[in-house]
Specification:
The protein is of the alpha+beta class. Helix content is 48%, strand content 14%.
């Protein structure tokens, strides 16, 4: 229940993977068996961190471990990043130390950890503790701390409450996210027989009660009288989108803008009759319609902002000192200034080191290159954020959430009046038709035969053309049934894919669908395909996707307008970037290589014979 979440940890450690979760400690603590804690290395708010604690924590830092045998700037920065995170973790733990954790909460979390590690008996648990040099008490203390941290964070986030101004602002800036797709209020009848479907369709067109027909005959949703979107136990249809229908059915249904009944439509061996009671076009939702959704979205952002501020407050108050005689160097110099705001090295290191590509650079021996690439890039992003944050304060709007969220809202507010014409939307559509093309699909089942079963494959195909039960027909010839389901091009083996999606040929049909020829695959085995509901590739007409095209144009124009705005703000801002200067100061001098003794085999300068003494 209280296992510390990855998202919580990511925020605490500036998007770093947590190294201190109890599961990681149990699995990756190579030197935990040391009983003595060693000397004090540093203090956090007056509380000591011992030598053994550092060994244990260091083993879980990916970048630090990768640079253990290296020298140079990367090692210095990895060390500094490690200590920054360790200090913050200790400070958060101390802040949460007064929170009560019940024995029941602790037991449940301990049971979860044991299950996660696959430890089902007390003997296995004891062996694990012995292997890593932990006592039961130590594990419980570690775990109690983590439960406290989660509870503390819940306290911090539980205090948020959106204002009406925040809700309305967020709605106005994100209207596109709350737009309704086109929908229908409808009922359907689904049957397995074409003749029955045609009979029911004629009865419905003649005025029979459609709901009653569905209740008595439909294979799907009969207990709800065929009502689509109906709540459980009820038979009143609710608005549904096209996605709930098989593709050919949805296409027919959404053509009935004035309502009506579709003719029977076959899809995957079944026949659908749909009565559209009301067509609801796509369009913007009013604030009141989506207020509940907006509220939840705003709450999430407020919680993230509250957590970010809490971490910043803890970080600002922490007092850390290296112990006397310790070799630890605690350095966090200012690397940039934006007006009166300072950006410190730790703020750059955390997100830069957390970049998924950074460890791969280090693993390839390109750590120094990674520093010169990721750190300036990260710092520029932080400088941009500070510039926009300063401007956001002048806008007089109730922006909220994390700093990044506030920046996004400010940019959206600045570009809120950007629009797109029909001509721009149509041009975008014509230049990006691939974005508006539906892939060809088919429902495919394969019956596979081994290399020596070609005759059996042919016998199966002959039987399949006559119809029958697939499983029985395949079993009779020793074939293996493989249901691919609804597939698009590229899903099937190359030969089969070409036959289904690239060939215009059709195959004889039976109750099993289209029955292909016997196919010889690349590995020499054989296959017979049973194909249903083939739908060709379709370019959606502009009228159908006009809003989507318009949205894409607006999005592109907003990005361009926002970029220009931000660049103008940066040009006008007072920015001092000292990153390269700081990195140069932190770079240790190159290690001098020991001079090798001269090789005795090497030639020596020819010695001149001593001049004889004159008599």
């Amino acid at each position: 229940m209280f296992g510390i979440s990855k998202r919580v940890v990511a925020i605490i450690f500036g998007l770093l993977v947590v190294a201190f979760a109890i599961g990681a400690i149990l699995l990756f603590t190579p030197q935990g068996q040391q009983q003595a804690r060693g000397k004090v290395e540093l203090t956090v708010n007056g509380k000591p961190i011992y030598e053994v604690d550092l060994v244990r924590f260091r083993a879980n830092d990916q970048i630090l471990s990768a640079t253990a045998d290296q020298e140079g700037l990367l090692k210095v920065l990895a060390e500094q990043n490690f200590y920054n995170n360790l200090v913050l973790y200790q400070a958060v733990t101390q802040d949460a130390s007064r929170i009560r954790v019940s024995s029941n909460e602790l037991r449940k979390e301990l049971d979860r950890i044991k299950q996660q590690l696959g430890l089902s008996t007390k003997e296995q648990w004891d062996q694990t503790l012995q292997r890593i040099g932990y006592t039961e008490t130590q594990v419980r203390n570690e775990l109690r701390d983590q439960i406290r941290i989660n509870k503390r964070i819940e306290q911090v986030q539980g205090e948020v409450k959106p204002t009406e101004e925040q809700l309305k602002l967020y709605y106005e800036l994100n209207k596109a996210n709350y737009r309704n797709e086109e929908r229908v209020i409808a009922r359907q009848i689904v049957v397995d027989d074409k003749a029955i479907a045609q009979k029911l369709y004629e009865e419905a067109k003649a005025g029979a009660d459609f709901a009653e027909l569905a209740r008595k005959n439909s294979k799907v949703g009969a207990d709800q009288a065929g009502a689509l979107g109906a709540e459980s136990g009820k038979s009143e249809p609710k608005p549904v989108t096209k996605v709930i229908f098989p593709t050919p059915v949805g296409e027919a249904v959404f053509k009935l803008k004035q309502g009506g009944i579709t003719q029977p439509i076959e899809s995957a061996g079944r026949f659908y009759i749909v009565k559209v009671e009301q067509y609801l076009p796509a369009g913007e939702s009013s604030f009141e319609e989506v207020k509940d959704r907006v509220t939840e979205d705003v709450k999430s952002l407020l919680k993230e902002g509250a957590l970010e501020r809490y971490i910043e407050e803890v970080r600002a108050k922490v007092k850390v000192e290296a112990a006397k005689g310790s070799n630890i160097k605690l350095q966090d110099p200012v690397v940039a200034k934006v007006g009166d705001s300072e950006i410190r090295l730790s703020q750059v290191l955390q997100p830069a080191f957390a970049n998924p590509q950074f460890p791969s650079f280090v693993a390839q021996g390109l750590g120094e290159l990674a520093i010169q690439f990721f750190l300036p890039q990260t710092l520029d992003q932080l400088i941009t954020r500070e510039v926009v944050l300063a401007e956001a304060k002048k806008m007089g709007q109730p922006f909220f959430g994390t700093k990044d969220s506030i920046v996004q809202q400010a940019e959206s507010y600045h570009t809120r009046d950007v629009t797109a014409t029909d001509e721009e939307a149509r041009k975008y559509y014509n230049e990006n038709k691939v974005l508006f093309t539906e892939a060809a699909t088919a429902t495919v089942t394969a019956v596979n035969f081994t290399k020596d079963q070609e005759a059996k494959a042919k016998a199966f195909r002959a039987a399949a053309l006559k119809g029958g039960k697939l499983e029985d027909l395949a079993k009779a010839q020793g074939g293996n049934v493989q249901d691919y389901g609804v597939v698009t091009s590229g899903t099937l083996p190359p030969v089969s894919n070409k036959l289904v999606f690239e060939s215009k040929a059709t195959f004889p049909k039976s109750n099993l669908g289209e029955v292909s020829e016997v196919i010889k695959l690349e590995d020499g085995s054989f296959q017979v395909l049973l194909i249903k509901a083939r739908t060709p590739e379709r370019l959606k007409p502009f009228e159908e996707v006009a809003q989507e095209a318009r949205d894409n144009v607006i999005r592109t124009k907003k990005v361009e307008a926002s970029s220009k705005w931000v660049e103008s703000l940066k040009k006008a801002a007072k920015i001092e970037n000292k990153l390269q200067e700081v990195l140069k100061q932190l770079t240790p001098p190159p290690v001098k290589k020991e001079e090798k003794p001269a090789d005795s085999k090497q030639s020596k300068p020819e010695e001149k014979p001593a001049t004889p003494a004159k008599p």
